[in-house]
């Protein structure tokens, strides 16, 4: 087997399309088919169920994919170490981001410093939920990912602390209060985030033995704010996902701290600190310095 074949297997498993895989790898679809066929013959297994141009990974394929991504990740680390030795500072990194707090706030701040030091590094951002970040780390689909701490399954590095806040329509008398309790929140239709903070908002209510009246789930913070602005309900979001200029665009939305105040700690996670490339180490150090 070759690294090209392994990369074809990994990319095809993620994109589930010969056309998209060929486009990303910048090779022909016939080359994709040839590499996959050679790998299946060598391993004597069927890696995908084929349906015209689309594919679905088999059970044994999924098991082998984890080890394949591990090999590709270690190969990337090796390439970066050799590149560093020669002073090239080249390569690529893939970062997992769980929502507006990391995508809109933290990543731009980090990359502003990181790209000055590593102008030749190609950067990929994969955005998903907390669960997806954990899965991508396990499967080596990302090199490093943003997580809410504590996170016991990976090696982690604390970055910053944030708080949760309530978003209330200004026409409600509740909006006149300095801070909002969870007991007050559950008396109104609740707009639940379906992005990075969902499991933590759910946990906040569970710990208080309260059940919000969930009206809708939204994956985009802007949609939640707009719904609150139109008197469709109240919500709880991470304060870092907001900024003053953003809320100024929605005159009927007021932001309030929760009472008691509820914090969260955001960090970076890697599958194992024993296999970090120099570039990922620097990325983490820069992140901790912002």
Key features?
290 residues, alpha/beta, Arc Repressor Mutant, subunit A, D-Maltodextrin-Binding Protein, domain 2, seven-stranded mixed sheet, two-stranded antiparallel ribbon, 24% strand, LysR family transcriptional regulator, DNA binding
Task: Describe the 3D structure.
By secondary structure, this protein is α/β, with parallel strands linked by helices. Among the domains are: 1-87, Winged helix-like DNA-binding domain superfamily/Winged helix DNA-binding domain (Arc Repressor Mutant, subunit A, Orthogonal Bundle); 160-263, D-Maltodextrin-Binding Protein, domain 2 (3-Layer(aba) Sandwich). Helix content is 44%, strand content 24%. The protein has helices at 3-15, 18-25, 29-43, 59-85, 100-117, 130-138, 182-185, 198-207, 221-229, 244-247, 278-289, and strands spanning 48-51, 54-57, 91-97, 121-127, 144-149, 155-169, 189-193, 213-218, 235-238, 253-257, 263-270. Strands 3, 4, 5, 6, 9, 10 and 11 form a seven-stranded mixed beta sheet that branches. A two-stranded antiparallel ribbon has the order 1-2. Strands 7-8 form a two-stranded parallel ribbon. The model has no long low-confidence stretch (mean pLDDT 90).
């Amino acid at each position: 087997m070759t690294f090209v074949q392994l990369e074809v297997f990994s990319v095809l498993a993620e994109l589930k399309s010969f056309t998209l895989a060929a486009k990303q790898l910048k090779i022909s679809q016939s080359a994709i088919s040839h590499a996959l066929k050679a790998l299946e013959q060598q391993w004597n297994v069927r890696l995908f169920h084929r349906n015209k141009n689309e594919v679905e990974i088999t059970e044994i394929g999924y098991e082998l994919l984890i080890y394949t991504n591990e090999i590709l990740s270690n190969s990337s680390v090796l390439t970066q170490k050799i590149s560093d030795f020669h002073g090239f500072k080249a390569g690529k990194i893939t970062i997992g981001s769980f929502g507006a707090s990391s995508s809109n706030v933290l990543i731009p701040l980090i990359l502003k410093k990181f790209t000055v030091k590593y102008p030749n590094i190609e950067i990929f951002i994969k955005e998903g939920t907390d669960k997806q970040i954990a899965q991508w780390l396990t499967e080596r689909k990302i090199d490093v990912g943003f997580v809410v701490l504590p996170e016991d399954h990976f090696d982690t590095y604390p970055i910053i602390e944030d708080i949760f806040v309530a978003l209330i329509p200004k026409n409600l008398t509740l909006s006149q209060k300095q801070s909002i309790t969870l007991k007050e929140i559950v008396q109104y239709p609740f707009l639940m985030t379906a992005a990075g903070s969902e499991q933590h908002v759910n946990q906040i209510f569970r710990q208080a033995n309260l059940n919000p009246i969930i009206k809708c789930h939204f994956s985009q913070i802007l949609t939640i704010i707009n719904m609150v602005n139109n008197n469709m309900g109240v919500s709880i979001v991470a304060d870092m996902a907001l900024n003053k200029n953003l809320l100024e665009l929605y005159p009927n939305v007021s932001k309030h701290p929760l009472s008691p105040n509820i914090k969260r700690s955001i960090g970076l996670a890697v599958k194992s600190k024993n296999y970090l490339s120099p570039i990922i180490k620097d990325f983490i150090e820069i992140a901790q310095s912002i």
